[in-house]
């Protein structure tokens, strides 16, 4: 405890001294169960939350492990109230269990809610939102749960602070032979560990950095379960990358893998569908719900689970009997629905710190820069006079950024560069100013794939892209990203955009991530929030003055 990098406070915040020699070690252990709230230069503030503690418990960390982390790195004794609170909160996970009845004789396989704590069971059974989901009380310590309500009762129990451990098992689905073809490659140790932990748990989320091979974790889970599989992805380009990777890395053939999207409606033993098609409505009804029951799926994979659209949560509540694997680089959701991911997809099963995987050489090292751009007097006056809801766009699309982008592109001549923007008119201006091809949501999928492939093989070295390139796009040789504008203060977007650069490169180059900020505007305020998640992963931003950047 002597002179550690942490200070644990009674309000469940934890302060981390960034310059301390043990700061990185402490950060990696603390991030297992605490969330970064603020990350200025010298002191970072973490908060210990109930959901963070329960996710850590589900991933195999108990209260003793978490308190040992605090005791090991803290400068002052951990307040007794915090120690007690952590033990009691962690102890809530698993006090209630959902399982199939094999004891009371009410019917083999009936869904029941059990607890050895009579007071807890009495408390939750009286809750007005949980009571309608319970349809019998055959014995002390046991309530019968309505067959359709497995997902809903987990949501409601989490809301009142009693997360249930789901041990009710899963339908095996229709068996289908799937094997990994590891003749020229093999799963990395952390990928194998993630697959094994998921397989044991049956449902849950694997958190890995972009470029660390989440798709291969999905393929590994498919090879373990050997069943018909539905894979849900963010867009059609991602669907085709999944298909190509599965054909390359597994025993599956093209006849066994189908695409269900706006362009194709194939249903095969392994079907890859987009979130967009699943949530599409016709005459007020979801038009493609039949896909969820088209086959007896034994596994459902949710790619980029932090982007799961709200309607899919509702649909997923009815899929609790099927194994569910969520894949993501970050559990951060800007809509605050992390609890629904926990309840309906499953708790976090595996999480590997970004810097740890970088140290093992599996993702590229990266340096991050915040480039502050001064607005000319005329633009500054226009910004000052604008309404609050117009100011971010004015700052984010400031014409003064264009010249800075041009100088950064010249500085990195010979490298493969992504210029990323949020606003379509700004993307048009950038593409014209840089004489570079652009990709937006309006670009046809086939044209996107042609441009991405040309970028991969080096036929073009500069692409201007909108947010369509944020997710699931495999561009391993991209070594520079210049973010000109983004979705306000989105932490998940910042992580995904840096992630475009983290795939290991043949060149071995360190990646460079630039974000351009209009000085003394809301652009700068939002940037601080955007950077929080990456700060939690051990990345820091070097502040540069745009006037000091020479080509």
What does the overall shape look like? globular
Helix coverage percent of residues?
A: 25-40%
* Assembly classification: single chain
Strand content of the residues, in percent?
15-25%
Structural class: alpha/beta
How far apart the termini lie comes to 48 Å
Main sheet record = 7 strands, parallel
Query: How many helices does DSSP assign?
Result: 21
Give the uncertain stretches in residue-range form.
Answer: none
Protein model, in words:
The chain has 551 residues and is an alpha/beta fold. Helices cover 36% and strands 21% of the residues. It has 21 helices and 25 strands. The protein has a 7-stranded parallel β-sheet, with helices on both faces. Strand 16, helix 11 and strand 17 (323-328) form a beta-alpha-beta unit. Helix 14 runs antiparallel to helix 15 (388-396). The chain starts with 5 loop residues before the first strand and ends in a 6-residue tail after the last strand. The mean pLDDT is 87.
